[in-house]
Amino acid sequence: KILVTTHRSPDADAIGSSLGMYHFLKLKKHDVSVITPNAYPEFLHWLPGHKEVINYETQKKKAKKIVNEAELIFCLDYSSLKRMEEFGDVVGESKAIKILIDHHQNPGNFPDFILSDVSASSAAELIYRFFEMLGEGRLLNTEIAECLYAGIMTDSGSFRFGTTTAETHRVVAKLME
After folding, report:
1. Distance between CA atoms of 76 and 43, rounded to whole angstroms?
2. Cβ-based neighbours of 16, under 8 Å, separated by 6 or more
3. How many CA atoms are closer than 13 Å to the CA of 126, on its beta-carbon side?
4. I need a labelling partner for 6 at 20 to 30 A (CA). Which of 56, 79, 99, 133 fits?
5. What is the tens place of the pLDDT at every residue in 71-130?
6. Structure pTM?
7. Spatial contact of 6 and 15, defined as CB atoms under 8 Å apart
8. Axis crossing angle, helix 60-69 with helix 86-93, rounded to the nearest 10
9. How far, CA to CA in Å, does 109 sit from each of 44, 46, 113?
């Protein structure tokens, strides 16, 4: 049982990364849930899988049950449990193995494993790299690509910010393909 989480007031990188990971893990036949600390903007509801996202604020009992049963928790696009407010305490108390994938500075010491690169354009770019590190890039499909592309495009400021690199464009090209 795998849980995918992200920060409070999730943006396109947070939701895109979470749903990209969700679709990847579903392809691998895992039992996967995505929980956000609170709601995210309606303009992101077009992302494939958004109806599967559980809002902790409105579904606390269900969310806590999922956290308690989780064997593995992916912590995406946040470096500190404080970024999840109350839900961060629930995740922090979980006995599950925690994997942090993030591009923000100063990753916390709560996860068991960390994939962190502050020079990355977005968490979504790191999620793509994670799939490649696993040798699973061939599993990319339209749903995963749309989710990750949304995260990269928005967190890179439509490819204008300084963290946009040639590697960012290579990743986006592969997602477009």
Report:
1. 20
2. 44, 47, 124, 147, 148, 149, 150, 151, 152, 154
3. 27
4. 133
5. 999 999 999 999 999 999 999 999 999 999 998 888 888 999 999 999 899 999 999 999
6. 0.95
7. yes
8. 30
9. 30, 34, 9
